[in-house]
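The instructor's notes for this session suggest beginning with a concrete chain rather than abstract definitions. Hand out the sequence below and ask the class to guess, before any prediction is shown, which regions might be ordered.
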Amino acid sequence: MRCPFCAHLESKVTDSRLSAVGDVTRRRRECEKCARRFTTYERVEEILPLVVKKDGRREAFERTKLLAGLTRACQKRGVALTELEAIVDAVERELIDSGEKEVDAAVIGEKVMPLLRAKDEVAYVRFASVYRSFRDLEEFRTELEKIARDRGRPPSDPPRPVAAPPPPPPRALADVPKDQPQ
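After discussion, reveal the predicted structure:
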């Protein structure tokens, strides 16, 4: 394995561990030339289908692209990276198990959205707005109404009014200035 620091080709493995799922091996390595340590990840290369884009282009499925899109949708939302990686793992596993040679990008998005929605509805709407390319506010509103309906709350329900503050107590005669009428 090439050292990322000095580019030397010889290194020794100092530690190996399986991931929690058991599909990735994490290896700590030490360069035999500069003695610096680095980490590598090893995973079985499985045949993934080509992704057919909206414009007809075909490209290899890249989990990093999907993870980056999910990460952007979840910015400042408190969804852990491990949860996003689990979504990507599930979608990737489905694609491998399908045995298809090509899959539309739309199919991948449709597989991701319910998994993301279960984690965070705001992130789901963000992802859907980019992924489904909402053309106008009405399409966005329709999606929000669908979410509200699924939660059991009618989407057209107006927000509950905030309770008005209680009226001030009546002033006593002694509180009224003498020059004002009673």
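Then share the key points. Residues 8-44 form one domain. Residues 154-164 have pLDDT under 50 and may be disordered.
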